[in-house]
Design goal:
alpha+beta; Alpha-Beta Plaits; 2 domains; 5-stranded antiparallel beta sheet; 4-stranded antiparallel beta sheet; 5 helices; 25% helix; elongated; disordered C terminus
Length: 177
C-alpha cells in the first residue's frame, strides 16, 4: 500500500520508439531512484506513448527525478499528478482458494467490489478487478484469509482529473473556424 506523500505519480509523454523505456528505467536505476509502478502504452497518436510511473520520493527528490527525465531526448512532456489531481486505476487478477464450502462468501465479496469471475476451478476462482489502488488493496486484504494462490497487479495508470468547468460543453463559434 502506498504511503501518501511518499509516492508521486509522473505522467510522461515520450516518443513511441524502441529503447525509450529502457533509457528511462536505466536512468532511474543508475541514480538509485525507486520506481514502485510503471505502466506504458501508446497514446491515440501512434508517434507517442505515455509512461505512468509511481516514484518513491524518499529515494530522491522529485525535482531531481523530473530534471533527469527532462534531459532524455525522447521525453516530450512530464506532468506530476499530485494527490487529488488524478484519476488512478489498476487491474488485479487473483486466483483465490475457494472450496465449495466458502465459494458463496468469496463470490459475494467479488460482487460487492464490482469484480468479475473470469475462471472457475474445483478448488479456486480467478477474479479480475479494476479500480483505485486503495480499493484493490482492501479487496486483496479481505481475500487473504481464504488463501491466494496467485496474484498479479498491472501497476498504476493515471490521467489528470477533469475540472468541473472543463466538463461543460460550450457552443463552437462557426465564425472562428
Amino acid at each position: 500500500m502506498a504511503t501518501p506523500g511518499k509516492h508521486h505519480i509522473l505522467s510522461v509523454l515520450v516518443e513511441n520508439k524502441a529503447g525509450v523505456l529502457t533509457r528511462v528505467a536505466g536512468l532511474f536505476a543508475r541514480r538509485g531512484f525507486n520506481i514502485n509502478s510503471l505502466a506504458v502504452a501508446p497514446t491515440d497518436d501512434e508517434r507517442f506513448s505515455r509512461l505512468t510511473m509511481v516514484v518513491d520520493v524518499e529515494s530522491a527528490p522529485l525535482e531531481q527525478m523530473v530534471k533527469q527525465l527532462d534531459k532524455l531526448i525522447n521525453v516530450i512532456e512530464i506532468t506530476e499528478l499530485g494527490p487529488g489531481e488524478a484519476v488512478a486505476r489498476e487491474l488485479l487478477l487473483v486466483t483465490i482458494c475457494a472450496t465449495p464450502d466458502v465459494r458463496g462468501q468469496v463470490i459475494e465479496l467479488v460482487q460487492v467490489f464490482g469484480g468479475r469471475i473470469v475462471s472457475v476451478g474445483h478448488e479456486a476462482i480467478m477474479v479480475s478487478l479494476e479500480g483505485a489502488p486503495d480499493k484493490l488493496d482492501d479487496f486483496e486484504n479481505l481475500m487473504r484469509p481464504y488463501g491466494l494462490d496467485a496474484i498479479q497487479r498491472s501497476g498504476r495508470i493515471a490521467l489528470p482529473r477533469l475540472r468541473s468547468e472543463e466538463r461543460n460543453l460550450t457552443a463552437v463559434d462557426a465564425e472562428a473556424s
